[in-house]
Amino acid sequence: MNAQQTDRLTGLLGMAVSSVYVYQASLIEDSLLADAVGVAGVPIGIGYLMCVASALLFMKSWLKSKAEASAGVEEVEPGGSAHPHWKAMGLLALLLGFLMLVTIFGFIVSIGVMVAAVAYFGGARQIKTLLWCALITGPALWLSFDYALEIHLPTGMWSQWIGK
User: Fold this and answer.
1) Do residue 86 and residue 154 come from a single domain?
2) Is 7 helix (H, G, I), strand (E, B) or coil?
3) Can you tell me the distance from the alpha carbon of 83 to that of 98, in angstroms, rounded to the nearest whole number?
4) Predicted TM-score (pTM) of this structure
């Protein structure tokens, strides 16, 4: 299977999964305490975003030049991997590490560590940049969710340790 066929299949599969996801999210009942967005608002938004990304991937597969398709030679993109499944497994391992860290250290610290780890995994090697990215991302996302959207994120066990 060439890259175009893979993109088409992934796009179609993503659209199908996101459609089921949006449908299931729309079945979530609002409680009496729900705000204007409701408890299903964020999952439905994520589902629509996934559907749009999948549709764009599907359309991208048709827009590639016929010269690339007729060449029949698959080249690995610069910085890419000949085995992309290993890269996906590495990203999945980082996500699982984030899930374990968030219960202990909370969202702010865990998301900063995860962003730095994903950037390092993706090829960023400047320690100063990774450190600043981690230090800025956690508080920025926390502020946007906790204050702007009023979605309270997990604080982790450390807040109990310091008596908060």
Assistant:
1) yes
2) helix
3) 24
4) 0.51
